[in-house]
Amino acid sequence: MPILRTLFGKLFLCLILALIVASGCGEPEEAVETPTRQGAIPAGAVKIPPASDVYPPVLHSSEFQEPVSLPGPVNTAGAEDSPFVPEGRQEFYFFFTPDPSIPAEKQLLDGVTGIWCSQWRDGQWQEPERVNLQDKGKLALDGCTFVSGNLMYFCSAREGYTDVHWFTAEFQDGRWQNWTNADFPEEFQVGELHIRGDELYYHSSYAGGKGGTDIWMMKRVNGEWQNPVNVAAVNSADNEGMPFLTSDGLELWFHRFYLGSPAIFRSRRVNGEWQQPEMMVSQFAGEPTLDWEGNLYFVHHFYKDSRMLEADIYVAYRK
Q1: pLDDT for 127-141, tens place per residue?
Q2: Distance (Å, rounded) from C-alpha 202 to C-alpha 217?
Q3: Which residue, 11, 50, 36, 312, is CA-closest to 191?
Q4: What does each C-alpha distance from 129 to 91, 92, 291 come to in angstroms?
Q5: Closest Cα to residue 192, out of 2, 12, 11?
Q6: Contact between 83 and 287 (Cβ < 8 Å)
Q7: Please, what sign has the CA dihedral across residues 6, 11, 16, 21?
Q8: What digits encode the pLDDT tens for the residues 18-62?
């Protein structure tokens, strides 16, 4: 079965790529024209229409309309994954790879796999552009995007480093630049994250959890992140991951594996305490994020005969 392009898959993929990078693999010296997303997709790839989806997402909430494939130019016959809409920026970030079945080393060299961004203009999402987060001529595979204001956190496997590391970048003069290592203490095992104020939520298999990966929280005191605390109210013996907090800090969205595939859950914070989570969307629905109008975006993987064919971004508009 192909690796899912959720963080569970991406971090494993990044680890493989890190080993490749550490072994001295590099770009060819001659200049190569960067391909487009569409141009990098295999010629035989077929865009799967929702009507042909064997396992469509299932809505469990009366607050939203039925999920639909995101209108506009974001989705292709390749794999779009890891959606993220930052607070205060009308932008849409996602991870893209043209063919989820190809070997990791080819993704590293294809010129398109990585982070992409679409701008919201004239009431619709525009043609996405690649987010370059590496020096010219250097190899990297980036993902796990979190953006707050003019600061981006992202994870990466890149030349000069072994294993996967966290980095930050600053948005200046119309582009992301000044990327620098931003690792957390290694023992905290920080996975995909969301930061709001002085609270950092992330998923991890850190010791002391309920099983698999759990949602953990760290508080920042005097500029230092304190020891992680298990967010016990939202965790279970299954895998929880990909936390997203609403701008008011009162809703924690995440996904949990349910009946063999990712499903989206939400917990509300009442009097400072997280409540029992409720399932919102099931059946290959993961990595939730909400926009400024409260619309729900998530990744949906298309499977047939136990094989992932592609992945698209879906949206459930708030009623």
Answers
A1: 999 999 988 888 899
A2: 6
A3: 11
A4: 11, 10, 19
A5: 11
A6: yes
A7: positive
A8: 333 333 333 333 444 667 999 999 998 989 999 999 999 999 999
From CA 276, how far away is CA 272, in angstroms rounded? 13
Distance linking the first and last C-alpha atoms of the chain? 37
Encode pLDDT of 182-213 as tens digits. 999 989 999 999 999 999 999 999 888 898 89
Pick from 38, 14, 108: nearest CA to 3 = 14
The one-letter code for the residue type at 202 is Y
Q: Which domains does the chain have, with CATH numbers?
A: 7-27+52-316 (2.115.10)
Please list the residues that pair with 253 across neighbouring strands: 244, 266
Round to whole Å and give the CA distance between 43 and 99: 11
d(CA 63, CA 319): 6
pTM of the model: 0.89
DSSP, collapsed to helix, strand or coil, labels residue 165 as strand
**Dist. CA 63–CA 232, nearest whole Å:** 26
